[in-house]
Amino acid sequence: MPIERIRSFIAQDMSAVDAVIRQKLHSQVALIHQIGEYIIHNGGKRLRPALVILSAGVFNYSGQHHHSLAAVVEFIHTATLLHDDVVDESQLRRNKATANALFGNASSVLVGDFLYSRSFQMMVEVDNMRIMKVLSDATNIIAEGEVLQLLNCRDPDVEEENYLRVIRFKTAKLFEAAARIGAILGNATQFEEEALAIYGMHLGTAFQLIDDLLDYSGDYQDTGKNLGDDLAEGKPTLPLIYAMRTGSDKQASVIREAIKSGGASGFQTVLEIIQQTGALDYAQQRAQKEAEIAAEAIAKLSDSSYKECLLQLAHFAVTRNH
């Protein structure tokens, strides 16, 4: 079941999610609506809201709250993108200009704040304190991850453990929350809920590991970003960390200086070192292991088309080229 079949399987639900998104994006302040529409409907894989739909489906949920909560998850994710692009001074996302490049940093930050606050209004409407706690805790941890990543920038001494901590906070936590709230909606047992949470955490980790790998191996037409963007921002991602750990002193020194200085001027040399040290293969293997842990976490759940989609998402996370 490739990703297109997964999208087809939940197409009706995702259309309902899109309808909620459009309704809740409405604001009497025109700029909020304009920027929100631009970033949310400008591509994207919609994996996080899809996780809410699929995990609720595993437990035969038949209400409507999964549509609202999937939209909440997308709003939270979109807010982080708006803020991320300002912090990273990004100009391009998914082959198109970032919101901050078009509308300015101040507008992007403030509309991101609007999306955060709107998402909390929507959580209250669902009126489930357990779900509110999961999502509010996740939002707080994501913010901690953002700060941790900021502290790691231009620091060549970041260890793999610290790098993975940032991923689990900044990216994987929202995947975990999305999978968990779907299970809560479906009245899953504690064991089943934890299985979905573990699945989401490791799926999100695998997804981000591949994102970081693609920064050194992807194609612009597929990824919508230039090779070396992470290095230009001084981000010590896993390919760099592994290459410094296993390469020669000279090779490690080249990468250290590239991380400290940022910029893309030495990218080609760094890329050659990454290739020579097998860093891309290592990052791929680490991502594969995370995907396997995700799949194992839900292996004992009852078989269904929804479960099969979740298993295929884990496969997609590590085989994709965008």
UniProtKB/TrEMBL annotation:
GO terms for molecular function: all-trans-octaprenyl-diphosphate synthase activity; metal ion binding. It catalyses: 5 isopentenyl diphosphate + (2E,6E)-farnesyl diphosphate = all-trans-octaprenyl diphosphate + 5 diphosphate. InterPro entries: Isoprenoid_synthase_dom_sf (IPR008949), Polyprenyl_synt (IPR000092), Polyprenyl_synt_CS (IPR033749). The keyword RNA-binding does not apply. Keywords: Magnesium, Metal-binding, Transferase. Pfam families: polyprenyl_synt. The keyword Magnesium applies. Its cofactor is Mg(2+). One of its GO terms (biological process) is isoprenoid biosynthetic process. Its EC number is 2.5.1.90. Gene3D superfamilies: Farnesyl Diphosphate Synthase (1.10.600.10). It is an enzyme of class 2 (transferase). It comes from the Bacteria. Supplies octaprenyl diphosphate, the precursor for the side chain of the isoprenoid quinones ubiquinone and menaquinone. Belongs to the FPP/GGPP synthase family. This is Octaprenyl diphosphate synthase.
